[in-house]
Amino acid sequence: MPLCEELAQGLMQRQAQISPKFLYDARGCALFEQITELPEYYPTRTEAAIMARYDLQIAQAMAGCRVLIELGAGNCEKVRRLCRSVGPQQFLGVDIAVEFLQAAVVRLEQDFPRLSASAVAADFTGDWHLPPGVPKARRELFYPGSSIGNFDTQQALHMLRHMHSLVAGDGGLLIGIDLPKPVPVLLAAYDDGQGVTAEFNLNVLNHANRLLGSDFNLRDWAHEARFDSRNTRIEMHLRARRPVMVCWPQGVRHFAQGETIHTESSYKYPLSDFLSMLAHAGFSAPQVWTDEQQWFAVIHAHA
Hints:
Shape: globular
Order of helices and strands: HHHHEHEHEEHEHHEEEEEHEE
Helix content: 25-40%
Strand order of the largest sheet: 3-2-1-4-5-12-11
Number of strands: 12
Strand content: 25-35%
């Protein structure tokens, strides 16, 4: 489905929505980098600490990897540790924001001269495919940052099954997941005091304007983070400050004051639930590493 059509369909839903993948244009990627350095945003530093502490064990779990594939690679910073410890021959960074990714891949290849690195433009939330010619043996997928939490259980399971098909045989998956924790900690992580997350969320409207030809005015909207206890997930919304009419070439949507556009969910899967999902997707023999507070988990599973 063309991106503009996907955006239009989402905006016309009863609960208007914009897929979280549209948060990551070049500006969105840069803002997310800032978010990862905020004191309230624990996932990135907690995951990095786990990866550092258990570096040797993770490398042993991925021993023999020839092709390392990172989903949502962004600036390629997280994969650097694996490039050193695992030593793959080939790296493929997969992301929808390919211009941002291409520059990161160039830097990675410069820093690891023996590594053949390339950027793959793909929406990996669908049934995407690797470029032809990528060796099938000893592929390892790397999906850090708890991004799997952006999808509900059925969507996440579909993605995990597709991931399994890409590495089936002698490959594996290294994935980060965010675990349940106190609600105030979660809300602060998605609504920081400096307003960077708000700017990140609002920027999706600029991206929508470019792709769809819409006329969103950012001054009409406010960032909102909320916790859905029934689904154990954080939700990000954009709330209309006043009655708003948004137009684009093939459509129009009227928003009442207080009506929202749902831009992201972030599920906090209990560890046992996620391990069950991995098994249903075809993965086996999981190894789990966590922090002392049990806030985050890094998992490797064989295909």
